[in-house]
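Q:
Got a chain?
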Amino acid sequence: MKRWIGAVSAALMALSVVPAQAADKVVLMLNWYVYGEHAPFYYGKAKGIYAAEGIDLEIQEGRGSAATTQAVAAKTADFGYVDVPTMMRAAIKGAPVIATGVLLQTSPMSAMGFADKNIKKPEDIKGRTVAITPADSMTQIWPLFLKKTGLKESDFHTVAGDGQTKLNAVINGQADLLLGYVMDQSMKIKDATGKDVYPIKFADYGINMVSSGIIANSDYVKANADLVRRFMSATTKAVEAAEKEPKAAAQSILDANPKGGKIDTLTQGFELTIPLYRTAETKSKRPFQVTDQNMTDSVNLMVEYGGLDAKAKENPKAFYTNDYLPKGNS
């Protein structure tokens, strides 16, 4: 009996020192340098939400949605957070990428300028100067905004340049407005000047299309279905947690990257992002659960105005899946 008890004790001791299973290392590449929109990922990591799903998350800054999409297609990043219409352009050309969750279901595109210039509706753009970046996503959709609002290109002046030149044009008074995202460029202008910015949102004038979401390599998804589910579960929970604590979520960016911005504008930028998570159809649903109609409408708009190949309209569902999302409502 003593010998048996000793053997059992030895076995239990051996089990007690067996190391826990290592977490899966996952690389998430962002669409750009960090700003307020990215708060949920940092907050989820800081609060242990990813760790609870067995994920060791590494967040990398990006250099544009196109570059991040290329990295995911090449499997140098496991997941990407990108502009979904940009991903569609790559996918229709053969890139093996798919959206596993669409977070921004309302467009953040806008024409914005200093609030003290009192440019608050499309009519106010007449006679003004608008800064654009040729061929970017907003400039491609700009003609639709003009059509929806009854504006003509002859109603205003245009100056063109890259992203920083566009910002500088407004900051230095060479342009009255620029085309930008409500939670991104507006905060960069405020950081630089301390002045409030007013956005005329495209979505307020019937231009309803998706924006940012999580993408992955199609083969990676098939080979790692359980990991993709755990990642999307953690990311959904991270977004929900961040929505409840915007300032704490923004602070998590600075805790990870002290040069990531200023707490006030990071918080404000994230707060401007939250309303874009849902449409009227998904207001009771958990984050990322995009509707088929929203995606179909987005594909149609991209074909007509955004340079997307017309064959994309044959199967909009090829660009996204909700199969790896946690179920249930908010």
